Amino acid sequence: xxxxxxxxxxxxxxxxxxxxxxxxxxxxxxxxxxxxxxxxxxxxxxxxxxxxxxxxxxxxxxxxxxxxxxxxxxxxxxxxxxxxxxxxxxxxxxxxxxxxxxxxxxxxxxxxxxxxxxxxxxxxx
Length: 125
Fold this sequence. Notes:
Elements: H1 3-10, H2 14-22, E1 29-30, E2 36-37, H3 41-54, H4 59-71, H5 76-108
Antiparallel strand pairs: 1-2
């Protein structure tokens, strides 16, 4: 499948597909005429990439997942572990954002400003 058709089916730009190929998330085969041909499985890989990105996975994490799936199907217990690890990271980030929000809320309600020389700077944990 040529890049234009792949882009259309995957609902991605050609530049995005080229970027993913440069990052070695997908592979193509170069034809004799210089055009790149993408195997049918590339569409499934792009759908997996999109889903993983929507779940908050980085391209590095997605690359690891793709490497595991290329070897064999990932065991369910390992998938659960990957999801739990991401969930823990999200929970940690939510806690940090909540702490930042609380501090900013206090500052908007008149608490001493930590950005002035005479104000103590509270620390985020």
